[in-house]
From TrEMBL:
The organism's taxonomic lineage, starting at the top: Eukaryota, Metazoa, Chordata, Craniata, Vertebrata
InterPro entries per the UniProt record, alphabetical: ENOX
Alphabetized GO MF terms: NADH dehydrogenase activity; protein disulfide isomerase activity
GO cellular component: external side of plasma membrane
Highest taxon, organism lineage: Eukaryota
GO biological processes: ultradian rhythm
Protein name: Ecto-NOX disulfide-thiol exchanger 1-like
Amino acid sequence: MVETNGHSHEDTNEINVLTVALVNQDRENNIEKRSQGLKSEKEALLIGIISTFLHVHPFGANIEYLWSYMQQLDSKISANEIEMLLMRLPRMFKQEFTGVGATLEKRWKLCAFEGIKTT
């Protein structure tokens, strides 16, 4: 056993494992805080439709494109309402930036299948 600053090498490894576990727990807690349960059947329906739309658009879609599609189904829906819903579900949807400079674009992607593999 090697001593470092009054702690054995074994103690240091235990501290590192504990630190990693706490950091991972904090990440999980933050995700849980952001991803609240569904408020209504309408939200479940929207999530299903958006998931299907993004599934057939594997490179993602910007919020305007999503909104124009969703407006055909619900004329009262706003882009902000869609974006807030997507932000609340970080294990299902992620936002990525593509392009450079003036061509920079924010796109939403379906990442639900990635989440299943890691849990």
